[in-house]
Amino acid sequence: MKDHLGLMVKGLLKPEEMLPMDLVSFWLDDYCYALELQGVRQSFRAVAPHPLPEGPSSITGIVNVHGQAIPVVNLRSKLNLPPRNLAPEDSLIWVEAASQDLLLAVDRMGEVLQVPDEQIVDVAQMPDDVELFKGIVSLEEGILFIPDLGRLLDIREREILQHAMGS
After folding, report:
1. N or C, where is the chain less crowded by C-beta within 10 Å?
2. 142-165, pLDDT tens digit by residue?
3. Cβ count within 10 A of residue 113
């Protein structure tokens, strides 16, 4: 919506002509989440990460993807979900978050969705502590949570990760 605000003010674009947001959905337990498609590089079948001994607790290890060592974020702990080991049917989503390549381990991939901007509730309007989320969408199938990739790791976690990876 904000990309089209200037055109709306000038009367060149009506709200019903706004482009939808492209999201890719995924599941953790019984909860559905989605990421903005523009921040997703690739998804693939999960592999066991190599340990990163001095890494932050929010990182379960690293995975070699096309010759690049990419940290795997423990998204379950970030979202206060019960811990679970990676299973062969799980997936990894390769994302760029605040100029950092990261992998997110998920139970299963969903689909690519187009959601009109006006259907996305800004979490700033929500009364509860939802600091990790950018928005929430109510669909016929249920609630869709949109994590804010820029907030997956805090400053301290980024510093520890940078040190552990020798950067």
Report:
1. C
2. 888 999 998 889 999 999 999 999
3. 16
How many other CB atoms are found less than 10 A from the CB of residue 103? 28
Chain position carrying tokens 């002509």: 17
3-state secondary structure string across 135-157: EEEEECCEEEEEECHHHCCCHHH
Euclidean distance between the first and the last CA atom of the chain, given in angstroms as a whole number: 37
CB 150 within 8 Å of CB 131:
no
- The residue type found at 70 is I
Q: 18: pLDDT confidence band, cut at 50, 70 and 90?
A: low
Could you tell me the residue ranges of all domains in the chain?
22-164
CATH number corresponding to 22-164: 2.40.50.180
Q: Is 58 helix (H, G, I), strand (E, B) or coil?
A: coil
